[in-house]
User: Fold these one by one.
Assistant:
Number 1:
Amino acid sequence: MEINNISFFPWEERPKGCNDVMWRYSKNPIIGRYDIPNSNSIFNSAVVPFKAGYAGVFRSDNKAVQMNLYVGFSKNGTDWEINPEPIKMKPGNTNMLDSEYKYDPRVTFIEDRYWLTWCNGYHGPTIGIAYTFDFVDFYQCENAFLPFNRNGVLFPEKINNKYAMLSRPSDNGHTPFGDVFISFSPDMKYWGEHRCVMKVAPFEKSAWQCTKIGAGTVPFRTEQGWLMFYHGVINTCRGYRYSMGAAILDLENPEKVLYRTQPYLLAPNEIYELTGDVPNVVFPCAAIVKNNKVTVYYGAADTVVALAFGYLNEIIEFVMNNSL
Amino acid sequence: MEINNISFFPWEERPKGCNDVMWRYSKNPIIGRYDIPNSNSIFNSAVVPFKAGYAGVFRSDNKAVQMNLYVGFSKNGTDWEINPEPIKMKPGNTNMLDSEYKYDPRVTFIEDRYWLTWCNGYHGPTIGIAYTFDFVDFYQCENAFLPFNRNGVLFPEKINNKYAMLSRPSDNGHTPFGDVFISFSPDMKYWGEHRCVMKVAPFEKSAWQCTKIGAGTVPFRTEQGWLMFYHGVINTCRGYRYSMGAAILDLENPEKVLYRTQPYLLAPNEIYELTGDVPNVVFPCAAIVKNNKVTVYYGAADTVVALAFGYLNEIIEFVMNNSL
Amino acid sequence: MEINNISFFPWEERPKGCNDVMWRYSKNPIIGRYDIPNSNSIFNSAVVPFKAGYAGVFRSDNKAVQMNLYVGFSKNGTDWEINPEPIKMKPGNTNMLDSEYKYDPRVTFIEDRYWLTWCNGYHGPTIGIAYTFDFVDFYQCENAFLPFNRNGVLFPEKINNKYAMLSRPSDNGHTPFGDVFISFSPDMKYWGEHRCVMKVAPFEKSAWQCTKIGAGTVPFRTEQGWLMFYHGVINTCRGYRYSMGAAILDLENPEKVLYRTQPYLLAPNEIYELTGDVPNVVFPCAAIVKNNKVTVYYGAADTVVALAFGYLNEIIEFVMNNSL
Amino acid sequence: MEINNISFFPWEERPKGCNDVMWRYSKNPIIGRYDIPNSNSIFNSAVVPFKAGYAGVFRSDNKAVQMNLYVGFSKNGTDWEINPEPIKMKPGNTNMLDSEYKYDPRVTFIEDRYWLTWCNGYHGPTIGIAYTFDFVDFYQCENAFLPFNRNGVLFPEKINNKYAMLSRPSDNGHTPFGDVFISFSPDMKYWGEHRCVMKVAPFEKSAWQCTKIGAGTVPFRTEQGWLMFYHGVINTCRGYRYSMGAAILDLENPEKVLYRTQPYLLAPNEIYELTGDVPNVVFPCAAIVKNNKVTVYYGAADTVVALAFGYLNEIIEFVMNNSL
Amino acid sequence: MEINNISFFPWEERPKGCNDVMWRYSKNPIIGRYDIPNSNSIFNSAVVPFKAGYAGVFRSDNKAVQMNLYVGFSKNGTDWEINPEPIKMKPGNTNMLDSEYKYDPRVTFIEDRYWLTWCNGYHGPTIGIAYTFDFVDFYQCENAFLPFNRNGVLFPEKINNKYAMLSRPSDNGHTPFGDVFISFSPDMKYWGEHRCVMKVAPFEKSAWQCTKIGAGTVPFRTEQGWLMFYHGVINTCRGYRYSMGAAILDLENPEKVLYRTQPYLLAPNEIYELTGDVPNVVFPCAAIVKNNKVTVYYGAADTVVALAFGYLNEIIEFVMNNSL
Amino acid sequence: MEINNISFFPWEERPKGCNDVMWRYSKNPIIGRYDIPNSNSIFNSAVVPFKAGYAGVFRSDNKAVQMNLYVGFSKNGTDWEINPEPIKMKPGNTNMLDSEYKYDPRVTFIEDRYWLTWCNGYHGPTIGIAYTFDFVDFYQCENAFLPFNRNGVLFPEKINNKYAMLSRPSDNGHTPFGDVFISFSPDMKYWGEHRCVMKVAPFEKSAWQCTKIGAGTVPFRTEQGWLMFYHGVINTCRGYRYSMGAAILDLENPEKVLYRTQPYLLAPNEIYELTGDVPNVVFPCAAIVKNNKVTVYYGAADTVVALAFGYLNEIIEFVMNNSL
């Protein structure tokens, strides 16, 4: 999401000797697993510019390992005040606020308000939707889909006058498959026109994304198309490994993938990515952009929140030149 | 579906000595597996009264075991002329007619036309929708849901001014789980307000429906509520066994189950149910009703079409008195 | 169990041309699946001589597919009157009568009463125990073991002054493994001294019993040892197939197998064994003996009860000459 | 295999009203499961013309369900005398005659002798090879491959001066996958030049062969290419179903598939195919040809041997016109 | 186990800034994986006060990864001398000393001797029992149960004049399920009166203990009931994660759970818990108590032994206030 | 492979206090995961003495996680120059150079050239073969076997005038089983005379190698027999753990195992073995020997290359004295 001018932008230059398109923040993780009282972990969280700083919706599992969403605010994007009480929803276009668990939020601003989507437990995982104007009051809407679904990510604009959402049909467990679809809605209540957007890659072409893929950050409008960071998963003999790539979708027909990274952009390598509740996970949930600088918020090892950086033009060039 | 007066109604009285609520047609199966040229099987098919007789949409797998839908007509409901060419869809509210396979149709009349739903292959199974006025031209609409879904069954009326559909979220394989949900649509294009309707039964209470359940016949309005025949599945050490039960749903809030059979109404016992491409399957897809008589069309052993009969008042009484 | 002199003994001579050690009753099945009102199936049942005839405890699943035990009486061992009400237990040496389900009974007379064992659902399958003097009042005792266990079969005498029971440790599902153990009890309340008795056979030596085996009939004292019919299972690409063999255990150290059939004695071949709720199942639960004649009661296809016959001396000779 | 002129040829004309390319023998099965003393089943067996009649190698599982090979002879191809003693191998080009089990034989004549291949148990299934001049003495050769492999079928001629064998790499269990490969040998001892010949079909195009396929009968030279009947498998919710198709391979480059049936030629439908030790299996192992008549020997339900017939020109035409 | 007055008690105060109920020893692990010659790992071990210091029974896997039990002694509870020879059992109330492997010991003093229980390999895992007076001679008793069972933990007193043992019925592999049961014995030879004590928690309420749970430390008598630390397991997409909670059982009816932690008390976070032979394991096996101080010995990452501390009153208060 | 005299030999003495037969290089890993541009990992690689130094063939997965082979050269065996372009094969005794992926190389010199074997993707993993004289031009030969196979390792001499190769039949996934076989070839084109060499160990005897084993380094001729380092795998509840052992095979009949380590020689313990793309992997691929010193190159955590050292006489003595 493009940052307004007055905000401080969280950023660090590419380290000497680094030739990668994207690099990590030297002070990662920016949020520790115990930074909320009684928390077990804080990760896979969404950040947007808000007022003169930033607001965020954070996934935190408490020490009972109950998954819930929390609001936080920050002036600089790296130091956060997180409300220790989970978000309590109010009725939006529905009275059904049932939720067995909430996790993996994404946030985007559309027209006049911030929209929050997340994985919502209703007889299995599906996509929950809510909106807020102020990150204080959240109004819940109808779940977008029937279970089982995860990784619902809204586009930051209506497309052809309809809301558009990426998502990944799933199963009720660890889901050993998964492709990205798009759906449309005139009103954030009823959804349809479901199309397959992108599927897992062949093992021999791009094994890091051969088991499942899922939308990650809210797509960002560029001249070349919607830029979206996504995660890809390979199933090793020790379980799943999550890495980050990027795709560029057609601006008007976003079900059309124009480019998509064959190499990953970021894969687990640091100790906070290699150890934790779920080792070897890099899971992007939000990206902010300012003056050609891109900062990605990603969950590491299902335990903490970390940052990665890159230059927008370089990323786009890389995606276009290294497309699957 | 209630039959008009002039139609012949397929029916046979309860056999002597039979105390069951429902019983089989003595001439079952009414449609053999090879009754379409090049067919491997004809089963799980839908029938509605049409003009002075009946029209049907039939699932037939050809000898390449490709699954498709075929139209048939009958004067008496038991003898059928089936068009050997599969239905070819025309654009309804969509131009996307992609379909890897089509199976398990249901048909109902709403307002001014016949609506057809089926399991439609689009990157996995989902619910296809089409309408026809004449069983000659079929107009395909947007798939109701993202994959993976099966057993989409429309209510025969709008409820609260919206179309209503039962369905069963699934996976991409043989799906070892499955509960029935309801969804609503203002326009047969966008769907939402998803609610869980009924779940599998506990093993110790009603094992025949402890693995998965799915909507079967189009719900039929009665004073006591929507009467629907459904299938339940138990996973034996030789695979799945499908039986038939019935539920009564609240007329105004059909997500509310008023009654639901703890005992099954029909379970595999005849040789055409116990042997075939998938032994031990009884799978109801359509029910027609006239003057308190109910005739259910069900697929047997994933191979042939068969009939079962019962008196409406007795069935309702049984469901109410033997509710889970 | 040895039959007293006045009883009619169910028997049919070996058919002409048959060279098998054991053969089937020409009027099989002797009990049909619907022979109890509301029953779905009657199978895997136990029979003992009682008064001038026979008493039996029958497994019947009702049409809700709830598994329970029923009492029946017969004068000739083939025609049965079965009480349509399931057995209701009274407290024996326990007040805990909890049972989620009851199935696969065996019955034996020890000292002064008839002991009934069965697979009892208590947070998973385990072995239930009860006794009766008259097949009217049944007194339930403590479950013999922790879950998960099935096929608990008592010896008809105390051995070294202790009750002895064969059983098969299992899991909570269809259990793809299983060996036979023996346990001892001074009082039918506490059990111990668990020993492994016999294990599955190597695939290349006796594939019909390579997946799991389980005690079948109550062991019968012979000069050569305890003769017991048991079931063996092979896992085919269409699921389990159950066949019947026999073993001879040492009279004083019954954990010691003296002989055990490498070939089966009976395997599914008749239509009532090849089709039904679980095709390809032959499951022996009781054997009665009189004047060198042996009659085995076995469940067929998890659906009906059938009989097989043989001469005791021939069976023993066969087991000894064809031992694994 | 082409039949010499003096032989009686097993044949029955197409039944009235039958429009299928291939049809069954009205007296099927020609060999019953108990036709060898102590046999449990006789199926998946190979037949070749021999002297003035026919010789065969039969798979029979005995009542211990040990799998072995037996020799038989017949004057007319339908009535068989089978030697009740399994084949005992003598050393051919190897002294290693180890075999945990032997099953699914195929036989072909090359140059001066009959070659037998079968699934040979050596630390898992692999392809055993032996030759005989007289069906009395069999000389075993080195196993063709490392485990795990099944369905090894030799071509009836050397191709480019090398022996050629089709086979299907497998696993050690029920193998839920399987494609057909070809390998070559200069000497029946060392094998190489492995090439993939044909793979399973996409589910939506030809579901009966979407799980695995395997070579069936010895390829028969025709003008259009090598005609081979093969089996295809679909995994239903009740396990595998085996059907029969045919392929035509290039005469000089037999790794090249010219045509291959999209529809099956024969799928389980008769009671001896639908019930038995493994229901719903049609498994072709041998074909004999004379004057445009083709007779296929196939195993039914892993229990018995049956025959199917067709006209060679019609079969070839069908394969060419209905190719996947 | 309450410590006598003269012993040194292993203890470290709560670190500054720590608000957790329990905290780790700063010098963890106290025993390294190679601290026994030829050992691969030392973990999941039991400690009791003994004479003026402590005795322990240690699980160590040697470099062949054979699991066995070893005796050790310590004056202060943190520095240990471990006998490099595994314990060799002598006959107690049984002569059957067969054991394929021994692991996960617990020790408690009852009346006049120390009782050792462990997971004993006898045709699968079950609960081994032995006693010792001096930690030199160990006398083995009959296995408590049939396989498959793990985590057998004795109460430190007879209850209603019977020995009482917690255990967890299991399967023969990694066991993806598991609830805690209690059994009673008059004589440490025969066991019965099996009752279910506590089951896994619902995923949405307490996911860290939603897959399986098992008794950990010997229950400690408090006014509020038996305090027991136990482990809970969640199955992540990278395998199991073991955490520690606590329960309070009714003093007289210990099958009754009075309180049980919804949040965990300790979950893997330190590098010696997050890496090792089995990462992400915290597995409590023993607790010692003195003057309101509690020290828990737990295995970390199936590799080393570590300590955690807490105040008894605070732990009890926490369990009561945060009960599931 | 024995080193010529002029080469520098990579070596480090046994650390003080270390009593293990083999020990690690203090500067491990010698090759980092990013040491090739765009690499994700470099591991499981083969090294041989070449000219005055060493040549190596390296497995590197690039950032698309495509697996390929790369050539490198080193003067001292620890500092490497790796060509960033993968090896491009030329036709050797085949024109079929198809390869979906290449990984896990081994290299050995036989007679006049260096032979390279690797896991080659051709419709599944099989063993690729190539030769080179100069590590510049590589000539590919026919794949040795049908899929599915891995860990093909050539002997450094012909045995009985034939090439000999160890390999491990596998499946197409993570292969939860695996034994080592040997095959022979007169010409590096056709292979046969397959024999089972060694199988997994019983869990209770040597659990680190109870799930699967695979040949590791090229066997090295010693007086006692062929010394080969191999890997063994145990399946933990967090996935596979790979350790290293050694075996001594008979010089003339290498299918005969003379000795084989019951304890492992090296198992994952260092942070570069415990964390990475696949934690807990020690995977030996090459060994060089000079003057009684042995240096093993092994892949660590499927991420980097590391070294281990030992004295030849000590290793042989250890294998002989600690044989399974």
Note: DSSP finds two helices and 22 strands in chain A.
Number 2:
Amino acid sequence: MANKLTIGVLSSGGDAPGMNAAIRAVVRTALSNNIDVLGINNGYEGLINGDFHSMNERSVGGILQRGGTILLTSRSKRFMEPSGQRDAIRKMNEAGINALVVIGGEGSMNGAYALSQKDIKVIGIPGSIDNDIWGTNIAIGTDTAMNTIMEAVDKLRDTASSHQRAFLIETMGRNSGYLAVMAGIVCGAEVVLIPEVPTTTDEIAAAVEDAYKRGKTHAIIINAEGSGIRTTDLATRIDDLDVGFKTRMTILGHIQRGGSPTAYDRLLASRMGVKAVEALLEGQHGVMTGLKSKGIDFIPLLDVISNKRKVNMEYYHMTKVLAR
Amino acid sequence: MANKLTIGVLSSGGDAPGMNAAIRAVVRTALSNNIDVLGINNGYEGLINGDFHSMNERSVGGILQRGGTILLTSRSKRFMEPSGQRDAIRKMNEAGINALVVIGGEGSMNGAYALSQKDIKVIGIPGSIDNDIWGTNIAIGTDTAMNTIMEAVDKLRDTASSHQRAFLIETMGRNSGYLAVMAGIVCGAEVVLIPEVPTTTDEIAAAVEDAYKRGKTHAIIINAEGSGIRTTDLATRIDDLDVGFKTRMTILGHIQRGGSPTAYDRLLASRMGVKAVEALLEGQHGVMTGLKSKGIDFIPLLDVISNKRKVNMEYYHMTKVLAR
Amino acid sequence: MANKLTIGVLSSGGDAPGMNAAIRAVVRTALSNNIDVLGINNGYEGLINGDFHSMNERSVGGILQRGGTILLTSRSKRFMEPSGQRDAIRKMNEAGINALVVIGGEGSMNGAYALSQKDIKVIGIPGSIDNDIWGTNIAIGTDTAMNTIMEAVDKLRDTASSHQRAFLIETMGRNSGYLAVMAGIVCGAEVVLIPEVPTTTDEIAAAVEDAYKRGKTHAIIINAEGSGIRTTDLATRIDDLDVGFKTRMTILGHIQRGGSPTAYDRLLASRMGVKAVEALLEGQHGVMTGLKSKGIDFIPLLDVISNKRKVNMEYYHMTKVLAR
Amino acid sequence: MANKLTIGVLSSGGDAPGMNAAIRAVVRTALSNNIDVLGINNGYEGLINGDFHSMNERSVGGILQRGGTILLTSRSKRFMEPSGQRDAIRKMNEAGINALVVIGGEGSMNGAYALSQKDIKVIGIPGSIDNDIWGTNIAIGTDTAMNTIMEAVDKLRDTASSHQRAFLIETMGRNSGYLAVMAGIVCGAEVVLIPEVPTTTDEIAAAVEDAYKRGKTHAIIINAEGSGIRTTDLATRIDDLDVGFKTRMTILGHIQRGGSPTAYDRLLASRMGVKAVEALLEGQHGVMTGLKSKGIDFIPLLDVISNKRKVNMEYYHMTKVLAR
């Protein structure tokens, strides 16, 4: 006879708005199926340390609207070593945890895959504000981050118009231009700088000057942090070149990671949390929940970590048409 | 040789946040392809009256973030008659408009289909805050409306917990429970009332009482306006039955139609606006843009108006599991 | 030698955003002066029941931005009786509480005064979203409520203009028109209905018709719940009279009580919390903190409960000039 | 017989949310008193160029909720010279403008005083997001800026707690610590750095380490741009010293100047706009409207520009008590 399931749930890596909604969905779906749930604090670090606590329906009350993650998170160096993974498995066995739900980004899925190779039943749930995880159309937290950027840029627009100014906004995205490109479309940015498309400060200055000549009352430049051009340098350069607008700079930083999750992220996280538990019940594991055309699908963790997500260049070109 | 295109664009029916983003995308995509665009005021009513004006890149500057529609909208009774449609076509011919983009809801797509039957090249773009249009996963404005409801309910939660109260929130949705169900998931509602699932006040009172007994500090009840149960009546009834919580009522009304569009709605509207013009350029018409698994697709207007969108009951059941 | 102080703190009556900021300021100011603090749950009800718990710096961590009150609140009938007050004093003595901070509205100040008459050292802090407490320019929570109303009406404006509509918004204010008048100014309302100024539906309809004739694209009507005119009745009547605009209704309800407190409310609450403890240290009691010209002042509780705050009619007239 | 008044209105210097509300109040109050109003574009620069346009009630429709200023603004070097002022007066005479309302900051009040010395009837209205104008308790725009900072820091809090992090937030305030101190109170910052209180990176690091030891899950450090310590340098230094928290940086920039004005700013701006026109009607000029204990008062422009506003150190000390 199959063992009764006891699910451990953890969040790992950079936190993303909506992770709490996913935790809540995992816990309540499990409990409604008479499955016990243990919360694991501080990600894989807590897994190694056996930092577990039993969760009931009330443990996840009032967290749906909170940013961050009540289970805390960390990046664990110890877990990258076989010895760390061995210790983690031992602690899981001691506590009777025989299935694990891991909510996190690309690095977290690597850890999940490593455990699945050691016969642990793992399901991953993708959480990432810059949507850089292969295998899902969108990750938990991206929609909230996009709205946060957008609201910041909206605030700049009126003041930009009053003064004939250019604004430089640095967004997250060390390896991926996704957030910057999407923000470019929804904010009506004149210029978008991303890691995938190398450019020069002179080209950017020319684009800004062109916007000025076309009669724009302001220019919005969105710079992904991994674009290769430093925001501070660019601000200085554009001012030196005197393109018509004076330049001002905003670095959003971790504001993009925070805030109450949007409806979209709460819904996505809830759906993925429900499906993760249902999948475990049906005997599936070694996979990540992914939003696909037909709904929530299950993607082998090996595929997730073996592929690199690419930014859709169609959107990049759209920013140019729409900013005319 | 084919005639050069001149596109007319109008918004019609109930307005939805993101319509301006769609108008902007239509205008700028057209202009970047050297196509002229005429804006039509007040929907089909303006089409009959020849209330047209030429649009350039600056006509749509600074509107991306605005709710409502700069082209205004109306519900036109005259256009439901053949004589109204005939007058509209005459005005279009006089102004040289040989293609039309119609942004609106189900009723607007009916009008678009009627024109397409009279050899007018029409493309529809779906805008509807309660997502009741067949042929697209989601319509422009729905995401913003969902977030508006959610933010209102989030405000109720803290005060609800402080006082041990039940809150009744009436949302839009005369024929469709979509908004109410989705809001139910993202707000963590204990009870959701929709047109598709008949229920009684006694059943609702029992569900609220059950939440009280389970130790909930408050209860959230979302009532779609077309559920068959009047919000005011329900409030009185629950208070009479004394279920543990005192009841308070909120009727959101047209707040759900307003506000600056979310990132999701701006992106969806921009994509649909771009694709609508590209489709006309490629000779396609008589269709509506629809968000499908593979991206923006084109759905025959006849199919759009011949089918009824149904609420996904899987989501309805999810509200019950997640609210435990 | 004077007894060492042990302060009890409670919130009572209707909750208001910023109450948590006041609790946090009381606790941390007390602790930094080596005074013990006991939190009292559920207002005067908890005082009677001896529902007390010791508070330290971490007890009030992370609550500054939360609406509602972590100490919960209630309206206590028992405390209105001498026997209830007697039991409360007994419980205070048993727990060693020899000074009390009461955060709440007019009714709560009545209770505070009653205790002060029985030789309990009490300081009141005014919290009320409709600013109906005499003795302070403004109470904690009013600024947040005003912004909540304003943001709701802002959402209505774009959609109103798109459709040529009149909007009826019902705000709180059973006895006081303060919120409605102030909201009228900051929302640019065409008509404001308050308890202090009796009016008829015909006068209102005439004002709306006048706005239509002057070329306004919409009309905003704000109705305090105690104005004497029911919102639902008014909506029907204006539509019957056909004044040019179609009418839509919003009842905000307890949304006005919720939400994260504004900067103004957090600042006001923090200042009042600090000053309340400092006053007790200096031997003052039987007073309420009040925002006055020179800063935070102390108003005898007897004066607070013996006077009625009146709406400033200058503001009422300002709504008429500004809405032209 | 006295000449009929014709009022010119301009905004100048850095824009601030609420300036449009002030313009609207000036225009509508003037018109309701049968006074003509000319809008002047681009501040003193437009005054010199005669860039004037007649304004009616509809000119200021729908601007109450908009950030920025519809009259645009600039910093005019020409106007600092007597020749520029002479040209401006000539243009005013040609257009029949015999009274001027100037909405702006300290520099703008200098210009207003210069004109008043040349027999022009001027009234100033203070607009400044960092509240650095002497003669008014608070200037238009400060409340909105404070809320913008607060909402940004609120977003950081959850993510900070999830990760045990310290956050550095750079706010405006080149010469004044007002915004930073007030933000410190309302955001619950552990450390506030302002121009008025010199400090060292080592002291800051010690304060952060102390917060870590006291059990805080995160630390918030607010740095006014004129504090003398560069935000980028401080971030590096704290990370080098290893105080327990990892550090992340946010530079808000002009986001603080933007956004829809809060209720407080709309109300203050409306009151000042109304009073400015009433004062001109009563023969007063050469003054600035100031919020004082008794309401809106009139402060001689000479006093305004001769005094320096100082930050209230009581608030600075309050940040230390409240952050325990």
Note: Chain D touches chain A at residues 11, 15, 66-69, 72-74, 148, 152, 154-163, 165, 167, 248-255, 257-259 (CB under 8 Å).
